[in-house]
Amino acid sequence: MTKKGKDYFGYLKGVKLNSLSIEEKMDLFVSRKLFTSKKVLSLTLKKPLNLSDSSLYKTEQEPLKNLLDSYYTYVSKVYQEHIDNTIIDFFHMFNNQIYGLKNKQAKAIARLYYINIINNKNTPNIEVEKMFKNENGIPEVDMMPKLELYYDYQESYKYRLIKEFPKGLDEYLMGNSNYFTTKLIDNTPILKEVAQFEGKFKILLSLNDKYRFEKIAAPQKVEVELPSKTKPCIPRSKNNERIDYPIPTEEEMDEYILKHVFSKKG
């Protein structure tokens, strides 16, 4: 999320982007410094590589980072209620499960949820390791905190949001706020994915902030804006979709607590 980045909402107000061809639109975006053009080498095995051969290069356009950040932030704010619902649903369940437990027991359950969410099947299974020397000069290998990778996932969602839903970018640039409705997110997979990702990301940030599972070096400080405690929690209707959490069973939680909490007494 951006803090004080440029706001591009309505940046092309008055321009009928819907009437332009893809090529005309891209030319406009580049001329207005929303996208940038770059030459990309297109490799082929059919003939020897000759870097001076201009036919091997193709021109591609990609959005500038300020636009990526601004559009993603706007979409996240528009669908903040969907993000909040993800957070509220989780902590309503979690707080009931840790009610009356000591902090050590609560942390054990929180860690189990933390691991299950961060290793979700919809999240790329990527592990990054780094080698360093300890204070005695002996090499050691540490795994990069998984939560740090979520900042990279967030960046990839910014690109996907534009690539998979260019119509939304057009309406955003034309300043059409009425376009972004609840019905739209229900029928647009990438919007739903972004809202669910942001909800789960904030759950992880909140759990890590409280229980300190990982020490992370975030690109920038991101405030975890959890729903207000005074905000009324309205029961969800049967037709209202709920988020599918990787929830551990009661047996898994009991086994985990016995193994990692009570077995360490004494």
What can you see in these coordinates?
The longest helix has 23 residues, at 189-211. By secondary structure, the chain is mainly alpha-helical. It has a two-stranded antiparallel ribbon with strand order 1-2. Strands 3-4 form a two-stranded antiparallel ribbon. Residues 229-240 have low confidence and may be disordered. The chain has 9 helices and 4 strands; from the N terminus they run H-E-E-H-H-H-E-E-H-H-H-H-H. A hairpin with a 5-residue loop joins strand 3 and strand 4. It has one domain (64-264). The two termini are 45 Å apart.
Strand order of the largest sheet: 1-2
Strand proportion: 5-15%
Shape: flat
Quickly give the structural class.
Answer: mainly alpha
Distinct helical segment count: 9
Question: End-to-end span in angstroms?
Answer: 45 Å
Largest sheet: 2 strands, antiparallel
Number of domains: 1
- Helical proportion, percent range: 40-55%
Radius of gyration over C-alpha positions, nearest whole angstrom? 23 Å
**DSSP E strands, number:** 4
Uncertain spans: 229-240
What is the string of SSEs from the N terminus onward?
A: HEEHHHEEHHHHH
Features:
two-stranded antiparallel ribbon; 9 helices; mainly alpha; 266 residues; 4 strands
Fold blueprint:
Elements lengths: L21 H10 L3 E7 L15 E7 L1 H14 L1 H19 L4 H16 L10 E5 L5 E5 L2 H19 L1 H8 L8 H6 L1 H23 L38 H11 L6
Antiparallel strand pairs: 1-2, 3-4
Helix pairs in contact: 2-5, 3-8, 4-8, 4-9, 5-6, 5-8
